[in-house]
Design goal:
Blueprint lengths: L1 E2 L2 E2 L47 E5 L4 H12 L7 E4 L29 H7 L11 E4 L4 E4 L2 H10 L17 H16 L1 H6 L4 H21 L13 H20 L11 H11 L10 H8 L18 H4 L1
Bound molecules: glutathione.
């Protein structure tokens, strides 16, 4: 992690635990918003006007949080406006790197080797973990925002007429319900799988696994009789559920030990996951090689780095 702008401690996914051994996720620190006229958003400073080719998105294809933003970029047809770089899948000592791994990129703006160099370019005194996604402003050479929940919302509405507004991922009339589903799933499912994987006590692990499977039961029930989670139309709640579901059988079931059942054991959820995977552009945001290599590179959980052969993913990829 970075301390006062210096790389000070080798990558360790668990920087903090509570007294019962639960993993504590750090809060994102850059919270500015792109808006159609450059006015300040919900948090942060003004000065980030929506413009074509001004912003760049740094992502990891292993990462569910980063892939939320990649999905939103595709669905809102912002590909030509916002460029993307993909880091290598391995979580090495200096965390995310750019390079030649298939499907990854060389850092195009500054020739950086590591993502932590972006953080110190933005703030020479930054202290904290170096996470993706990072939404970067090429004009001011700084991070606009490194919180995926914010980035999905600004891709949905911050670009005004530059985006495809036939799709609204956070429609006014469904906001309360979307917020409720997001809240229901964040702690116990999206972050719940990490709580299971990074638990440092048996108690914290079992508590997290119970929440994860309770969430799958909730999803199964919520999807009875409708194709999408809220209002029977695609919203950000579906993006947030999908990125965790699509990694479940490949990474979480084995590495994070959430192994009471797989997603493919839930017919309604499986059909839902396949439906979203088949939406235009979505499959391009899913890279099972990066997912598998990336998660299984976390030394704390897999010290010898052996990569499992399965699962057979033909039930998704055809
Ligand atoms: N709250 C952040 C979380 C992002 C996050 O934790 N990303 C992970 C990858 S899945 C990461 O970069 N971890 C590196 C680290 O924790 O050092 C968001 O949703 O954008």
């Amino acid at each position: 992690m970075l301390v006062n702008g210096k790389w000070s401690k080798d990558f360790d996914p668990v920087q903090a635990v509570d007294e019962d051994g639960r993993f504590i996720r750090q809060d994102s620190q850059f919270r500015n918003w792109i808006t159609p006229d450059g006015s300040a958003g919900i948090t942060g400073k003004a000065g980030f006007k929506a413009e074509s080719e001004r912003y760049h998105l740094y992502v990891a294809l292993i990462c569910p949080w980063a892939c939320r933003t990649l999905m939103a970029r595709k669905i809102k047809k912002l590909e030509a406006l916002i460029s993307v770089s993909v880091v290598e899948p391995y979580l090495q000592d200096e965390c995310w790197s750019f390079g030649a791994y298939p499907g990854a990129d060389i850092e195009p703006l500054y020739g950086f080797k590591y993502a932590h160099q972006l953080y110190t370019r933005a703030d020479g005194n930054y202290s904290g973990q170096v996470t993706v996604p990072v939404l970067w402003d090429k004009q001011q050479h700084t991070i606009v925002n490194n919180e995926s929940a914010d980035i999905v919302r600004m891709l949905n509405s911050g670009f005004g007429d530059l985006a495809d507004n036939t799709v609204d991922l956070y429609p006014l009339d469904l906001r309360a319900e979307i917020d409720a589903v997001n809240e229901r799933l964040y702690d116990s499912f999206n972050n719940g799988v990490y709580q299971a994987g990074f638990a440092s006590t048996q108690f914290a692990y079992e508590e997290a696994v119970a929440k994860v499977f309770d969430s799958l039961a909730f999803l199964q029930q919520q999807l009875e009789g409708q194709d999408y989670l809220v209002g029977n139309r695609l919203t950000e709640a579906d993006i947030r559920a999908f990125v965790t579901l699509i990694r479940f059988d490949t990474a979480y079931y084995g590495l994070f030990k959430t192994n009471l059942a797989q997603v493919r054991d839930y017919p309604t959820i499986l059909a839902y996951m396949q439906r979203i995977y088949a939406l235009p552009g979505v499959a391009e945001t899913v890279n099972f090689d990066h997912i598998k290599q990336g998660y299984y590179s976390i030394k704390m959980l897999n010290p010898l780095g052996i990569i499992p052969q399965g699962p057979d993913l033909s039930y998704i990829t055809g």
